[in-house]
Design brief:
heterodimer; A: 8 helices; about 70% helix; B: about 130 residues; mainly alpha; flat
């Protein structure tokens, strides 16, 4: 239990409402984030920096699309699939969206069961999350293959503005990389949960610090962020 | 790295005492974020509904401002649900919430700048390369 002390360092947790409370926290001694562990705070700060990276990608895409004099390819048509003789617009992307949202749901429940110290359910839900994430990456690989076969390159494509390809590969590629790393980390942490590392407070081989179920929540923050970025990519790149 | 670890190890006993005091004083903070499973399932359901809605915007082929405003509306609602509930931002202290959520708002300034910039680029392209396109 001493470890929750790091989360909750014995300081007064009473909170003052509104801006005065924020000023009080930020001007206080030693730490600004009173009841947040360093691990969680650092994950949030990392996600903030990642937000700026993806913002820059989406902004450069916006700039390219607004400033080109050539018509932009219609994503609804580009990403359409013919399933069973039926031509359905954007269907692959819709399925990918549902897969990723489902993985976010299982992740949120994994966090919940982690704090209830339900080892088996947490590990299984994390593995389901990883499986859904891997499915997403697989579908993205399919999508990339399809587009490359149809002649989309970062410098040209058969349908219109040349910047379509570069924006597409850059944005979805970077997002897919995030998902892939997420899957790897999910499996690593699911293994630790399954082994009971956080019940016996076994020390990590790399950091030699005791592990906690909070790491599941921190992992969850990253995973939800990946889903969050997809919400924006889906809206701006595929639907706009 | 090693130094930092040693340093933290050294601090731990005092932290433990503090934590004990806090518990004794009745400031017990349950382990991390505890919310009923039902909440997550409801939010999950809403995310599905909202995603379906944004897909239908494309499926029915809405155009112009209606399309854009619907896309933005569903996007903001989904993002809000994910950040507030799944990422537990709704239950964090304001000091963290504001530190994380306010800076991205400044991206909107960048957006504005780039809108002007791309309009200008577009104009120059139309004027200078009209013969080529």
């Amino acid at each position: 239990m001493a470890e929750t002390a790091l989360t909750n360092a014995g300081e007064s947790l009473e909170r003052i409402e509104g801006w005065r409370g924020i000023a009080a926290d930020w001007s206080s001694d030693q730490r600004a984030f009173k009841n947040v562990s360093w691990g969680k705070a650092m994950m949030w700060i990392f996600l903030l920096s990642d937000t700026f990276i993806f913002s820059c990608f989406l902004l450069s895409y916006m700039t390219a699309r607004m400033s080109t004099t050539v018509p932009w390819p219609n994503p609804s048509e580009v990403f359409a699939l013919t399933i069973g003789g039926q031509h359905i617009p954007l269907i692959l992307i819709a399925i990918m969206t549902f897969v990723l949202i489902s993985s976010s749901g299982t992740m949120a429940m994994a966090v919940n069961f982690g704090y209830r110290r339900d080892r088996a359910k947490t590990a299984v839900l994390m593995l389901v999350t990883a499986a859904l994430g891997a499915t997403f990456v697989g579908m993205q690989a399919f999508e990339w293959t399809k587009l490359i076969m149809e002649g989309v390159r970062p410098w040209e494509n058969p349908w219109g503005a040349a910047q379509f390809g570069s924006s597409f590969f850059m944005i979805t590629g970077f997002h897919g990389t995030h998902v892939t790393f997420g899957v790897i980390f999910l499996i690593a942490i699911a293994r630790k949960v399954w082994r009971g590392d956080f019940d016996v407070e076994r020390r990590g081989f790399f950091t030699s610090r005791k592990g906690h179920y909070e790491i599941v929540e921190i992992m969850g923050l990253y995973w939800h962020f990946v889903d969050l970025v997809w919400v924006f990519i889906f809206a701006f790149f595929y639907l706009w | 790295m090693a130094d930092a670890a040693v340093h933290l190890e050294g601090q731990r006993p005092s932290l433990r005492i503090h934590a004990h005091d806090a518990r004794a004083a009745g400031v017990t903070h349950a382990e991390g974020q505890q919310h009923p499973i039902k909440l997550y399932l409801v939010v999950w359901g809403w995310l599905f509904v909202l995603s379906t809605c944004s897909y239908l915007v494309d499926y029915f082929g809405f155009h112009g401002y209606l399309r854009w405003s619907l896309i933005l509306l569903f996007m903001v609602l989904k993002a809000g649900l994910i950040v507030a509930v799944f990422m537990h931002m709704a239950w964090e202290r304001l000091a963290l919430t504001y530190a994380i959520l306010l800076p991205p708002v400044l991206v909107l300034v960048f957006v504005t700048i780039m809108v002007f910039e791309s309009d200008y680029t577009h104009l120059i392209r139309v004027i200078s390369f009209a013969a080529l396109t």
